[in-house]
Specification:
Layout: H1 21-37, H2 57-69, H3 82-86
Length: 88
């Protein structure tokens, strides 16, 4: 299968911006994997919390979990031990 080229994924062409390189390096492979696996297959992700969030790290963590748990079709996991979430 020929890999389709996303217009924003070529760093030699505009509108490439170095400021978003970290997002591009992570996002493009994830988008490719979602395209390959389909939208229904869960994907592993890492969420990098802003350690300098004005209300503190704990509040940043709580907000991230709240936003995730508020997504439709998501099993609420905030406050549960990692072992109960991962099935270990």
């Amino acid at each position: 299968m020929a890999k389709t080229r996303r217009p924003q994924s070529d760093p030699t062409k505009k509108p490439f911006t170095p400021e978003t390189l970290d997002r591009t390096v992570i996002a493009i492979p994830l988008l490719d994997k979602i395209e390959k696996d389909g939208l229904r297959k869960p994907q592993n992700v890492i969420i990098d919390i802003n350690l300098e969030y004005p209300d503190g790290r704990e509040k940043a963590r709580e907000l991230a979990w709240k936003w995730i748990d508020d997504l439709g079709g998501v099993t609420k996991t905030f406050g549960k031990p990692a072992e109960s979430i991962s099935g270990r």
